[in-house]
Write a structure and sequence with these properties.
With about 120 residues, the protein is mostly helical. The protein is built from five helices and four strands; from the N terminus they run H-H-E-H-E-H-E-E-H. The strands form two sheets. Strands 1-2 form a two-stranded antiparallel sheet. The protein has a two-stranded antiparallel sheet with strand order 3-4. This is C2H2-type domain-containing protein.
Length: about 120
Amino acid sequence: MGKKNQQRRRISGDATGRFLEALALVRQLHPETDEEVLFYRRYGIAMLFCPDDFLSCLICMEASQCDDPRYIPKHKFGRHMSRHHSKATVKCKDCLLAFDTAAAAGKHHHYAHSLPSGWWNFPT
């Protein structure tokens, strides 16, 4: 593995550790039962700790059903989307993500772009 790839993995690993710590704290302070809110709360925290030049793949996070923020270098994100999420054709107008349906894109837009930054730190 090249030096640059090792550095990317280290940066991603450090960010993942910070993500997991913050997620545990938020879960302790604000228990939640709504699955949709829980998921987007995890995604918001993942984006908060996302390293520069990386993105967290929301579709991979949702599919994995675990606390894995799936940090992907921005320069590889388009290729990631075409390889792993080729059916995702409804693009978000504010970021690089795409979705299978307009409804999924709308939910993402509401939680990721319409609500104030840090909303996931407060009770719903």
